[in-house]
Amino acid sequence: MQMKKLGKPSDALTRYRSTVAAGLALLLIALASPAQARSVPESFVRFATSRSLEGPGIILIDPTTHKTLFSDAADKRRAPASVLKLFSMATVLTAFSPDTTFTTTLNTTATAGTYVLLGQSDPWITASPFEATKYHRAFSPDLINALIAQNPDLKAITLEYSGVYTQDVQTLKKFFAGKVDITLQPVASPSAAQAAAVSEVAHITSPKLADIIQFCLLWSDNVLADRLARTAAEKLGFGTGPTAIQGAFEQVLNQYNIPSTGLVIKDGNGLSHDTRVSVRQIADLLLVIINTPKFKDIYEGLPTAGKTGTLKNRFVSDAPNAVGLVHAKTGTLSTTISLAGYVTVGAKQYVFAVVADHIHKHNADAAAAMTTIDKMLGTIARPQS
Q: Which long-range contacts (CB under 8 A, 24 or more apart) does 273-276 make?
């Protein structure tokens, strides 16, 4: 008997098979972790286990009960990208008051034509008139302009400096190129610079640290975050060496009883692929932040889904019901897409952290991962009634 060739399965049969396969997958997840499966909708689990996230670390916690509603690979250490800035800002606010300001002065010395710039490691000095006006940043050219006002025929100076970033004084030199020739000379120590200063010519002062922190988190400013973390580490007594930030972060975590085991910190902004943090450590820190008044500027600085900062264009089309209901720090690295913060679920705000650090190095893969995370949170986000 001649066998009849089987044709391709119908679209209806294909859909049926896909539905059965998806149902079996969800059943296996439920059997493996029944408490989690009951705590979140099946759609949340489906997005959390999506192939577009390539095996991420995920955790969702109810902060009122401290119950873990969902977790997957929560203790595996991963490269968190800019989510690391949460640790940096917590360390900064441990080292300094939110009302702290940074002052930089220009002073005469005993040598004619030589001046000394004394700073407090202001992380936010600028030579951009636009940035100074819009963000109230300390405008470094004001110092030299004050000197020119006193010496209209000024053509050249030697500028010694301490407590000011080399990049900032180099930018200042370029700003006055063709008008005043500035020879830069670093001073060996702050005490030597202070000893050389005779009288103040002018000074500039940054905004309050609280404002700087909120800007840093809202727009994920990498230079600012790293400078702040290093300044805080030095203030806390860890110096400026390669392990300074690591020591400072560990101290802050231990202070709030967050295990620092396995923590590896290479910078203050999350740009290093060698940094390692678990989503549980991130979530534990978020729990401390939301319950600690001195960290309120961290919460207030977080971008809001579909409305502000680095989340302004997120959730709008893929999870519109979550617009305004997610307040979180974004993270993007060549192989990492991360998001960590708070999602409003009726009368509560759940703490969540997602770090997907095996994303392929293509824009489409990164975009798919972001969309999946947005949709996952969209399955639980709902406004207060």
A: 273/79, 273/333, 273/334, 273/335, 274/79, 275/79, 275/80, 275/84, 276/77, 276/78, 276/79
**Considering the domain boundaries, does residue 23 fall inside one?**
no
Name residue 60's beta-bridge partners: 70, 352
CB 308 within 8 A of CB 217: no
> Which tokens in the block code for residue 354?
């997602």
Identify whether the C-beta of residue 264 lies closer than 8 Å to the C-beta of residue 77.
yes
Alpha-carbon 100 to chain mean position: 20
Q: What tokens appear for 31 in the block? A: 């059997």
CA distances from 248 to 174, 198, 231, 277, 350 (A): 35, 36, 10, 15, 27
Residue with tokens 């940096």: 88
pTM of the full structure: 0.89
232: amino acid identity, one letter? A
Coil, helix or strand for 213? helix
The answer as to whether 11 is a domain residue is: no
- Are 165 and 227 in contact by the 8 Å Cβ rule? The answer is yes
- Which phi and psi (to 5°) does residue 72 adopt? -150, 120
Distance, in Å, from the CA atom of 107 to the CA atom of 139, rounded to the nearest integer, reads 16
Residue type for position 155: K
Q: Look at the block and give the residue holding tokens 């407590």.
A: 163
User: Each residue of 160-183: pLDDT tens digit?
Assistant: 999 999 999 999 999 999 999 999
pLDDT band, residue 11 (cuts 50/70/90): low
Q: Using CA atoms, how far apart are residues 161 and 193, in angstroms rounded to an integer?
A: 7
Q: Which amino acid is at 141?
A: P
Output the furthest CA–CA distance in the chain (Å, rounded).
111
H or E element at residue 122: none
Dist. CA 350–CA 67, nearest whole Å: 10
Give the integer Cα–Cα distance in Å for 174 and 155.
14
More confident of the two residues 188 and 281: 281
The residue among 170, 187, 207 that closes a domain is 207
Q: Are 280 and 74 in contact (CB under 8 A)?
A: yes
What are the E-state strand segments in the chain? 57-62, 67-72, 103-108, 114-118, 156-162, 181-186, 200-205, 326-333, 336-345, 348-356
Q: Which domain holds residue 246?
A: 40-96+212-378
Q: Are strands 57-62 and 348-356 parallel, antiparallel or unpaired?
A: antiparallel
Same domain, 227 and 358: yes
Is the residue at 28 inside a domain?
no
Give SS3 for 372: helix
